[in-house]
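Could you join me in thinking about how sequence relates to backbone shape in a protein? Label the sequence line and the structure token line clearly, so we can match residues to local backbone shapes. Once you have written the record down, we can walk along the chain together.
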Amino acid sequence: MRTSNIPFLLSSLVAFSFAVAGTGLAGSMDDLFERSHHELEDHQKEYVYGVPVVPTVQWTMSSGGRMYDNWMNATDGDAPEETHPSWPATNTKKSGSVTWRCKSCHGWDYKGVAGKYQSGSYYTGIRGITHMQGSDPSAMIGVLRNEAHQYTEEMISDDQARRIGMFVTRGLHDTDAHIDRETGDTTGSAARGANFFQNICAACHGFQGTQLDWGDDSGPAYIGTESNANPWEVLHKIRNGHPGVEMISSRPFGMETAVDILTYVRTLPEK
């Protein structure tokens, strides 16, 4: 169970990666993802770990997106201690449980080596998942159990695998259509995004986005900091929520709203 003393109602975009100059990804905060958790009250656990009686398609895709991000935290599962057997030996910058996260190989832009992970500390040479769009979500069970992935049913159940399958085959977005791959600039409207942020997201982040800070002695890490360092990750979390905490998913509001929120939070204080 998680015992870190992170404030109650941490419905947050936690543990975002700091960008590495020239790569746009792959920094220190992502290595500290286990700090993103706190003890949940019983009524919160239903929302974070439970399943609706009749799950909607949008909920199912968001749930799958959170498991793609970090299935260990999304399911309250045990984190493997060893490095994933398929993690390339050439990448010595990452090891242990972080190598078992889907995003660590396939990226926040879902393009793997063809996207932002073509360089940086998460470079593996592994392809993305965009080729699976439109395929059978149930096929994800076999994919996750195969020799390359090696997820057991104790790690990710068949039902959870289908949810990941729904996210991968039905719920991806084309990051290049909304975020400039080189600059990180976004295509949304900050004015529209402010309306959603101030009425929804600010309940936890505060109006200036500084109520939640994932930084350390080297400096703060607010939502403004993270959205400018790694807008690809932040957009994923805006759409799907953050695994293991009570952050809402904006997926029912549509893609335009998610990009508008991202565009607005990039105007908020970074330090």
The chain has a mean pLDDT of 89.
